[in-house]
Known about the structure:
The protein is an alpha+beta fold. It has a domain at about 120-189. The chain has 7 helices and 4 strands; from the N terminus they run ββααββααααα. It has helices spanning about 35-40, 40-60, 90-95, 100-140, 145-155, 165-170, 175-189; strands at about 5-15, 15-25, 65-75, 80-85. Strands 1-2 form a two-stranded antiparallel sheet. It has a two-stranded antiparallel sheet with strand order 3-4. It starts with a strand and ends with a helix. The relative contact order is 0.10.
Amino acid sequence: MLADTYYATGDFHNRGEPIGIMWLIEYTGIIPLSKAIVGSPRSLKEYSQVLDVISKPLMRPLQGYYGFSLEQQKYADGIISNLSFDGMDIADPVWRYLDLTPHVVYLAKLAQHVISHDMQNESVYLLRHDQARLAIKEIIDMPNDYADRIIRSFQNNGGKKSNKLVKEIPKLAENGLYERIIEVLKRTL
């Protein structure tokens, strides 16, 4: 798989001389930014604040130019809506020459946090999960989805035995097998 390289720049100017931020990510996957945004009240507040940088100044002069009508109409892009908007001449310059510097700075900080903290924690979890799966398979041979079901049950029940799971996988009730698996999971996870 080829790595995609993403550049995000936020250029600031001081007396005509560029100063600023340049951020480079070389990554072959998806960075879960949305999860980080909704993951804490502070992140959600910061996200809302950065959106307000554009929306509040834009919406003030557009008061009275937008509203909702009783009739729906189909727009050129195929969207059907009852939103009516007559302030395109006011909004167009804002959208055409949009300064997204605060958004780029926000996303750079968020991506840095996700890569250095959230994804690291996820990697540790996945490593422990794989180790737990292998440890279960050392005790009893079973498909990965069964082992994963046991791990999920262990995590959801606070490390306690699940009678429901024993009914689903009757082999677990034999010769203290489930208890041995729980002990292994306590050490591994």
